[in-house]
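Review this today:
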Amino acid sequence: MPKENKDSAAPVYAAQACPLSAVIVAAETGFAAQFGVSPGEIHGCLPSDLLHVGTPESLRQRFTGLCEGHTLWFTEKVIGQHCRGTTFTARLTAGTATAPTGLTGLMLLLSPTTRETPPARTVLTALEARILDGVAAGASTELLAERLCLSRRGVDYHIRQMLRRFDAPNRRALAAQVGALGLLGPSHATAPARRANDSSNWSAETTGMRETPAGWATAAQS
């Protein structure tokens, strides 16, 4: 059952993260349901893989502060995305959960505030478009994670979400299908013709890139 927020009628859903790495190790069904997935599908992800605030580094830094003991808790307004492509805003409160023996974990409390109406057509966020551009160029999961400030598990999570949304059997088919639908720009549409191991162009184009809240904006509109 969701925990009720004393300040409003909005429900609050909980997840637990590792105190050393901030990796999510357990989550309530309601927490995972905000993203349209099961709890097991977000295990191993970082909170910053699922939620955005400012730049990716800013949310990671907040959790680093918790893990290193510089702060005991924080609250941020964050943006998340459901597997259907809709985004939502929520209030995230994260803090240390302690026991007499010491630090035992990090507790995440997510209180959704608004959710967008489903779009009339399937769309991509700018982050998803960049992931698919890298996939089409043959970029490795490690390179995608580095360039987009995600964990490897986070990259896989976003790709699984798109595979589900577009009903594609694999990454290559996903990139081809999205390109054929015209949801990516001209450069993306020709990307599958590159050599499978040639990620140099994609790497150079995205060097120094850091995703911002605008990354949740759709890459294609009706």
Observations:
- The beta strands are 3-4, 11-17, 24-27, 51-52, 73-81, 87-99, 102-115.
- The domain at 126-216 is CATH 1.10.10 (Arc Repressor Mutant, subunit A).
- The chain has a mean pLDDT of 79.
